[in-house]
Write a structure and sequence with these properties.
Number of domains: 1
InterPro entries: DPS_DNA-bd, DPS_DNA-bd_CS, Ferritin-like, Ferritin-like_SF, Ferritin_DPS_dom
Distance between the termini: 54 Å
Order of helices and strands: HHHHH
GO molecular function: DNA binding; ferric iron binding; oxidoreductase activity, acting on metal ions
CATH class: Mainly Alpha
Protein name: Starvation-inducible DNA-binding protein
Helix content: over 70%
CATH superfamily: Ferritin, core subunit, four-helix bundle
CATH architecture: Up-down Bundle
Family: Belongs to the Dps family.
Strand content: under 5%
Number of strands: 0
Number of helices: 5
Structural class: mainly alpha
Pfam families: Ferritin (PF00210)
Length: 155
């Protein structure tokens, strides 16, 4: 069935491509943050364990919102590790770094997502899609706040 919501097919394709990357980045960050929650050690254990839990819970909700926006635009959302590995720019964690490196890795990941969201927000395709613009603005706000927290913890 065709979609006639005021966003042409070409613009929808650009938006869905960008949202698919955002979804892959967000899911990869979710997995990394959850991993760090389980495996953090050291004198900051209690505070980082709680912070990482708060963040991965918020990321889990964000994954759903992003995927559902892709569906509302008429496309299927990617949903496999293989698809995410092809789409994400966030490095998968294969080790258990110390707490400081966990924070550095999370900071880098949040900044990658901010840049991707900003890139999509600045495309001309997004001009006709206020809903996705709002979603991207909300995602950037979340990730900018978390990047600030990581920077503050790192000193």
């Amino acid at each position: 069935m065709s979609i006639n919501t005021g966003i042409n097919t070409e613009n929808r394709a650009v938006i869905v491509d960008g949202l698919s990357r955002l979804l892959a980045d967000t899911y990869t960050l979710y997995l990394k943050t959850h991993n760090y929650h389980w495996n953090v050690t050291g004198p900051m254990f209690t505070s980082l364990h709680a912070l990482f839990e708060e963040q991965y819970n918020a990321l889990a909700l964000a994954v759903d919102v992003i995927a559902e926006r892709i569906r509302a635009l008429g496309e299927f959302a990617p949903g496999s590790y293989q698809a995410y590995a092809k789409l994400t720019a966030i490095k998968e964690e294969t080790d258990v770094p110390n707490a400081e490196n966990m924070l550095k890795n999370l900071l880098d990941s949040h900044e990658i997502i901010i840049r991707h969201a900003r890139e999509l927000l600045q495309t001309t395709s997004i001009e006709t899609d206020e809903v996705t613009s709002d979603l991207l603005t909300q995602r950037m706000e979340f990730h900018e706040k978390n990047a600030w927290m990581m920077r503050s913890l790192l000193g």
